[in-house]
Amino acid sequence: MDKYNAQQVMNGTWGEVWIDGTYMAEVTAFEAKVSLDKTDVNMTRRLAKAQKVTGFSCSGSLTMNKVSSFFIKKLNEDMKQGKQTACTIISKLDDPDAIGSERIVIKDAVFDELILANWSAKTLGEEQINFTFSDWDLLDIAE
Q1: 56-73: buried (b, 16+ CB within 10 Å) or exposed (e) per residue?
Q2: In the chain, helix, strand, coil percent, each to 5?
Q3: Mean per-residue pLDDT for 125-140?
Q4: pLDDT tens column, 106-118
Q5: Distance (Å, rounded) from C-alpha 80 to C-alpha 92?
Q6: Nearest to 15 by CA among 74, 91, 85
Q7: Is 115 helix (H, G, I), strand (E, B) or coil?
Q8: What is the pLDDT, as a whole number, of residue 10?
Q9: CA-CA distances (angstroms) from residue 51 to 14, 98, 119?
Q10: Rounded to 5 degrees, what angle do the CA atoms 67, 27, 107 make?
Q11: What is the pLDDT of residues 7-57, one digit of tens each?
């Protein structure tokens, strides 16, 4: 892109998240990222480290206002029985001023922990839940 206008910068206020088809209005932030796994490659007559990509790791985080016990209900029984709960997450960012929108499916998301209680007096409740995943698809991407 050679040029853009300030109003075309995507604003996270227009972000939305669905977990296994359930719309999560309480979400305030979402991140999903893919990090490359690299292995050092030793080479003669070269002092600098060389590296080869040998895989990747997928992780993310979800921040939301504490409105319900959604995650306790979703994960509690499986965790107590030693089962893994894998979810599908859809992230959508569709700012009406932006050039396009982004919609991404996160597959096989597994949440790292279950927060049973976390509160403080005179503090609004918030949850941040980290997860890993193994695959993703791009449904819509901005131009």
Answers
A1: eebebebebeeeeeebee
A2: 10, 50, 40
A3: 95
A4: 999 999 999 999 9
A5: 32
A6: 91
A7: coil
A8: 85
A9: 39, 37, 45
A10: 120
A11: 888 888 899 999 999 999 999 999 999 999 999 999 999 999 999 999 999
Beta bridge partners of 106: 89, 136
User: Of all helices (H) and strands (E), which one includes residue 28?
Assistant: strand 27-41
Check residue 67 and give its pLDDT. Answer: 95
Q: Is-contact 108 84, C-beta < 8 A?
A: no
Cα–Cα distance between 132 and 138 in angstroms, integer?
Answer: 17
Please provide the average confidence, as pLDDT, over all residues in the chain. Answer: 93
Distance, CA of 133 to CA of 44 (rounded, Å)? 38
Domains of the chain in start order, with CATH, are 28-140 (2.30.110.40)
Nearest to residue 109, comparing CAs of 75, 72, 69?
Answer: 75
Res. 141 pLDDT band, cuts 50 70 90? confident
CA distance readout (Å), 75 to 59, 65, 78, 106, 136: 18, 18, 6, 18, 22
- Terminal CA-CA length for the chain: 9
